[in-house]
Amino acid sequence: MKQILFAGVIGLLLTLIGTPLLIKFLARKGYGQFIRDDGPREHHSKRGTPTMGGIAFILATLIAYALTKVFTGGGPTPSGLLVLFLMAGMGLVGFLDDYIKIVKQRSLGLRAKAKMAGQLIVGIAFAVLALQFQDARGATPASTKLSFVQDFGWSIGPVIFAVWALFMILAMSNGVNLTDGLDGLATGASVMVFGAYVFIGVWQYGQSCANPLTAGAACYEVRDPLDLAVVASALMGSCFGFLWWNTSPAKIFMGDTGSLALGGALAGLAICSRTELLLALLGGLFVLITMSVVIQVGSFRLTGKRVFRMAPLQHHFELKGWSEVLVVVRFWIIQGLCVAVGLGLFYAGWLAIK
Fold first, then answer.
1. Region at 247 (left for phi over 0; alpha for psi -120 to 50; beta for the rest)
2. Are 200 and 275 in contact (CB under 8 A)?
3. DSSP secondary-structure letter at 170?
4. Can you tell me the distance from the alpha carbon of 129 to that of 106, in angstroms, rounded to the nearest whole number?
5. What is the distance between the alpha carbons of residues 82 and 271, in angstroms, rounded to a whole number?
6. Which residues have C-beta within 8 Å of that of residue 16, sequence separation ≥ 6?
7. pTM, whole model, 2 decimals?
8. 3-class SS letters over 105-127
9. Residue 176 CB-half CA count within 13 A
10. Rounded CA gap, 40 and 86, in Å?
11. Model confidence at 260: pLDDT above 80
12. What's the CA gap between 164 and 152, in Å, rounded?
């Protein structure tokens, strides 16, 4: 359990100390944020704020995980490394998009096909590797069964699993990306979900099928639950430290570098902890904001009318007169409720089969 504490504290300290250094570097290079002209007028003052801040918590998470293993003498696990690979890979795609958009002054960044290709390559590699690395009991980091609080139903096979994993990765990455429109909103919401996965990993470790004392109908068939909790703790700590600088008024934005990385990490944790469908509730704010865009686009194409003043949803409330801080705090409350209900269902699922 020391690993969880070490990972969180190291990640927190690294981003608290490292983010201002990154801010100075990006400001000196002139790598500032582009602001939409059709958005809330209050956002125009943010033009030029350093972006690509996701670099800070990606590196902090990787370093925190590595140092934790060194300090505690524990070894890395396939599940933990795969989640980190997915986070870093998606972050790299986002970094290339940010770099071209900001440094090369091409407003759209990576072309849509190139960006999608990068996400597909990383996602497919993760899906294929997640079905490898069997342990002594034959368990792999991921399962070809669908899962809610545990696996259920029949195997969907490796091909359909890869498609399903890709859908989850792309959906969560885009969900975090759409949420990242107000100071601290996506970062704070992500902290809550990573905190939930720390709890889930610890609980699964305590009720693991690999432990003869807990093996039974209510045990969890997860390959490396404790190490997934370590990864989640490193992410939670790193995002907490970044939030200090990202909260209103933000001194730095995470950019696509950060939002794609966080979305990938969330999807990876859900897949490897066998809580895939539960993620839709734990990350309920990301789902809600994504659906607001789907509804807005669908309504306009079908009827020529808009449901919201502006999508994503957070900007609708800004245009209704809510202050940015008010929107962020109330959306954090919604996200907190989603996490509470999700963890409640996770525990209820264990009670139901105990």
1. beta
2. yes
3. H
4. 35
5. 11
6. 241, 244
7. 0.93
8. CCCCCCCHHHHHHHHHHHHHHHH
9. 35
10. 34
11. yes
12. 15
Lookup result for tokens 């790299």? 92
- Rounded distance between C-alpha atoms, residue 116 and residue 179, angstroms: 19
Q: Answer yes or no: are the C-beta atoms of 217 and 354 closer than 8 Å.
A: yes
Give the tens place of pLDDT for each residue, 29-40.
Answer: 877 665 555 555
What does the pLDDT average to over 77-83? 97
Residue 173: name the closest of 32, 240, 270 by CA.
Answer: 270
The pair phi, psi for residue 2, each rounded to 5°, is -60, -30
d(CA 284, CA 261): 18
- 1 Cβ contact partners less than 8 Å away, ≥ 6 residues apart: 202
Angle between helices 78-98 and 54-72 (to 10 degrees): 160
Residue whose structure tokens are 């969330």: 266
Question: What is the tens place of the pLDDT at every residue in 157-198?
Answer: 999 999 999 999 999 999 999 999 899 999 999 999 999 999
Nearest to 80 by CA among 293, 252, 223: 223
What is the rounded average pLDDT for all residues in the chain? 91
**pLDDT the model gives residue 46:** 61
* Amino acid sitting at position 242: F
**What is the C-alpha to C-alpha distance for residues 298 and 159, in angstroms, rounded to an integer?**
30
Token duo for residue 251 = 């001194």
What CA–CA distance (Å, rounded) separates 248 from 246?
Answer: 7
- Distance from C-alpha of 233 to C-alpha of 330, rounded to nearest angstrom: 25
Q: Which tokens in the block code for residue 68? A: 């934790």
Condensed to tens digits (0 to 9), the pLDDT of residues 208-233 reads 888 877 777 778 999 999 999 999 99
Alpha-carbon distance of 240 to 224, in angstroms, equals 24
